[in-house]
């Protein structure tokens, strides 16, 4: 019973990375935010959104800080609306490159 | 205009026609999906406690040993997750909230449940008293697994399952409602599966 | 890292299945023709959507296993018994069927020869890839892209497969690749055997003092084990990028 949540923990085995949320977030942002650096509202540490922890089984996508595991972003689509709870204290996004470099290459 | 995938069906679902399936739900059968918005906390039992608070502070505290000797009940209920799976005849054991909230102040009308890991969910006192809610530590005759909310979780089977907070540690009695983790994020404040109260505005 | 690309609005595209062939006992290679495909970078993924007759839909992510230079899109899909989507993709989908997808997705887990040319300092850092099972898919795209562009970037792959038959993307694996087999080796096997651990990483990957850019891809528990070994070896967390696929449905 006291057995800690270890390797048999389904939740741990199903955790993804922020990069896997890029498709959903593309409905909102004109740039890919997975390479944006985000400062955590709780611990103040900075890391790329793509390197955050993603929990995708919940009723919404929940992104958590990889350092302190606090919630940084929640995203859901419900009946024709998009909900975004962006708690990150600061998002630093690399400025878009000229359009002709956008893909390929 | 979407492309149909010939022969594709929803996985792990079963038909059910006995009127026990709320609208928009499917029967998950033997499966017990794990839906988590965060890592599974692990609090050793010697540091675990359950507390009841009101606005002025702590009213009750039970250590694990103290909690385990409170009067217990066994229940068999159907549970309904807002992500559309339902599971039938699930068997739990634990302590009724009628026991835990026995001497609630007369001003209290709502409960905010708080869990290890920071999760919260809000409930009207009327929904968790009168034999309708429990703090359970046993599922199907065995200690509740951490991924399903162990050592102990709330069980409020007549509402969507997000109201049945996993890893519950604290019940706060309030005169006013205070929306929790999902209730502040577009999910319905009450969450009755038979009225299909999934999202705010439903 | 190069500047972020302005992304086209992602829309659902209709892919025509050109071929769906077995790549290994548990993995199929889907070859898709996607009219309107805007191009991609090696390492990116797509989301595939299936729609049942009753309107129910399911979506799953799959890495692009083909390089940007190749007009068809290739996916390497592992059949997860009891899974909702993967057995349909491997066993039901036929040539000439259609399937919906959107992409390309994700700028975090990419490597591009052009970006290394633009950013000489970054381009001097070698690239270390570490794959488990179908997690080799994005690296198949990177290896092929590396070869076709004649990129000078130094690149290595350490790849864990269960058996010799389960080695995927053989056509793009070259001398840069070390394969380790976790469930027994055939006679005469010259590669590694057993799970990837700190010792194998020390012997078979770029060491921390070469400051490699490291990409790890595979089932979540695999990626977890590899990344913690890499940290133990002294690689900095910021040099490691991870693409977790979720649960593999088997003890990893
Ligand atoms: C960015 C990204 C890229 C990917 N690329 C590839 C790729 O190139 N190739 C590839 O083969 N795969 C890839 N995957 C994995 C892929 O997206 C699917 O997860 C995989 O194909 C399994 O899908 P499924 O529908 O068959 O299985 P599912 O039906 O999703 O089941 C998967 C497993 O999880 C269990 N499970 C499902 N839901 C729950 C739940 N709620 N609680 C507990 N257990 C549950 C199931 O029993 C099963 O064991 C990628 C994933 C990501 C995030
Ligand atoms: Zn933090």
Automatic annotation (TrEMBL), chain A:
User: Which InterPro entries has this protein been placed in?
Assistant: DUF6510
Protein name, UniProt field: Uncharacterized protein
Highest classification ranks of the organism: Bacteria, Bacillati, Actinomycetota, Actinomycetes, Geodermatophilales
UniProtKB/TrEMBL annotation, chain B:
Coiled-coil blocks: none
Classification via Gene3D superfamilies: Oxidoreductase, molybdopterin-binding domain (3.90.420.10)
User: Could you tell me which InterPro entries the record lists for this protein?
Assistant: OxRdtase_Mopterin-bd_dom, OxRdtase_Mopterin-bd_sf
> Which Pfam family, just one, is annotated for this protein?
Oxidored_molyb
Q: Region (Disordered): which ranges?
A: 1-46
UniProt source species: Geodermatophilus sabuli
Q: What is this protein called?
A: DMSO/TMAO reductase YedYZ, molybdopterin-dependent catalytic subunit
The Oxidoreductase molybdopterin-binding domain covers: 38-182
From TrEMBL, chain C:
GO MF terms on file? 2 iron, 2 sulfur cluster binding; oxidoreductase activity
The answer to whether UniProt assigns keyword Iron to this entry is yes
Q: Which UniProt keywords apply?
A: 2Fe-2S, Iron, Iron-sulfur, Metal-binding
Superkingdom of source: Bacteria
Cofactor names: FAD
Kindly list the residue ranges recorded as spanning the membrane.
none
Q: Does the keyword Phosphoprotein apply?
A: no
Q: Which Gene3D superfamilies match?
A: Nucleotide-binding domain of ferredoxin-NADP reductase (FNR) module, Translation factors
Q: Which residues form the FAD-binding FR-type domain?
A: 10-111
What Pfam family is a match, any one?
Answer: FAD_binding_6
Kindly provide the name given to this protein in its UniProt entry: Ferredoxin-NADP reductase
Q: Which species is this UniProt entry from?
A: Geodermatophilus sabuli
């Amino acid at each position: 019973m006291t057995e800690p949540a270890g390797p048999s923990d389904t939740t741990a085995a199903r955790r993804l990375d922020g990069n896997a949320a890029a498709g959903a977030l593309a409905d909102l942002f004109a740039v890919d935010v997975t390479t944006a650096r985000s400062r955590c509202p709780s611990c103040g540490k900075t890391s790329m959104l793509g390197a955050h922890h993603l929990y995708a089984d919940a009723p919404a996508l929940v992104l958590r800080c990889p350092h302190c595991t606090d919630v940084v972003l929640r995203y859901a689509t419900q009946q024709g609306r998009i909900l975004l709870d962006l708690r990150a204290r600061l998002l630093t996004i690399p400025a878009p490159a000229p359009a002709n470099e956008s893909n390929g290459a | 205009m979407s492309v149909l995938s010939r022969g594709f069906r929803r996985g792990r679902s079963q038909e059910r026609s006995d009127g026990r399936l709320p609208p928009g739900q499917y029967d998950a059968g033997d499966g017990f999906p794990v839906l988590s918005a965060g890592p599974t906390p692990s609090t050793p039992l010697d540091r675990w406690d359950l507390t009841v608070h009101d606005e002025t502070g702590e009213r009750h505290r039970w250590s694990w040993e103290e909690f385990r000797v409170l009067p217990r009940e066994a229940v068999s209920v159907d549970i309904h997750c807002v992500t559309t799976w339902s599971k039938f005849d699930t068997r739990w054991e634990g302590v009724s909230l009628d026991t835990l909230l026995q001497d609630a102040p007369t001003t209290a009308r709502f409960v905010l449940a708080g869990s290890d890991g920071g999760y919260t969910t809000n409930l009207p006192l009327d929904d968790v008293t009168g034999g309708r809610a429990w703090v359970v530590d046993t599922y199907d005759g065995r200690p509740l697994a951490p991924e399903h909310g162990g050592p102990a979780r709330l069980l409020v089977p007549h509402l969507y399952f997000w109201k049945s907070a996993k890893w519950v540690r604290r019940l706060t009695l309030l005169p006013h409602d205070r929306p929790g983790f999902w209730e502040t994020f577009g999910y319905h404040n009450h969450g009755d599966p038979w009225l299909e109260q999934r999202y705010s505005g439903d | 890292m190069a500047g972020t690309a302005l992304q086209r609005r992602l829309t659902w595209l209709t892919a025509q299945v050109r071929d769906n062939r077995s790549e290994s006992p548990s993995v199929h290679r889907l070859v898709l023709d996607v009219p309107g495909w805007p191009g991609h970078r090696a390492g990116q993924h797509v989301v595939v959507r299936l729609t049942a007759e009753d309107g129910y839909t399911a979506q799953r992510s799959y890495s692009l296993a083909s390089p940007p230079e190749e007009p068809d899109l290739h996916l390497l899909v592992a059949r997860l018994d009891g899974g909702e989507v993967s057995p349909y993709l491997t066993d039901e989908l036929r040539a000439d069927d259609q399937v919906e997808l959107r992409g390309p997705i994700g700028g975090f887990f990419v490597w591009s020869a052009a970006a290394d040319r633009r950013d000489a300092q970054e381009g001097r850092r070698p690239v270390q890839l570490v794959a488990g099972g179908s997690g080799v898919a994005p690296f198949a795209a990177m290896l092929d892209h590396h070869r076709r562009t004649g990129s000078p970037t130094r690149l290595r792959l350490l790849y864990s497969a269960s058996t010799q038959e389960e080695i995927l993307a053989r056509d793009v694996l070259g001398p840069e690749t070390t394969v380790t087999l976790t469930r027994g080796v055939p006679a005469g096997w010259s590669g590694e055997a057993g799970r990837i651990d700190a010792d194998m990483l020390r012997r078979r990957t770029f060491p921390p003092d070469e400051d490699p850019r490291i990409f790890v891809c595979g089932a979540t528990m695999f990626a977890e084990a590899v990344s913690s070994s890499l940290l133990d070896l002294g690689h900095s967390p910021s040099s490691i990028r991870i693409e977790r696929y979720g649960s593999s449905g088997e003890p990893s």
